[in-house]
Amino acid sequence: MAYTFKKAQGFEIGKSLLEADRIDYAKDMIAKAEAKGVKFLLPVDNLCAAEFSADAEPVLVEGNIPEDLMGMDIGPKTVELFSAAVAGAGTIVWNGPMGVFEFEKFAGGTKAMAKALAESGAITIVGGGDSAAAVEKLGFADKITHISTGGGASLEFLEGKELPGVACLLDA
Question: Is the pTM of this model over 0.85?
Answer without folding.
Answer: yes
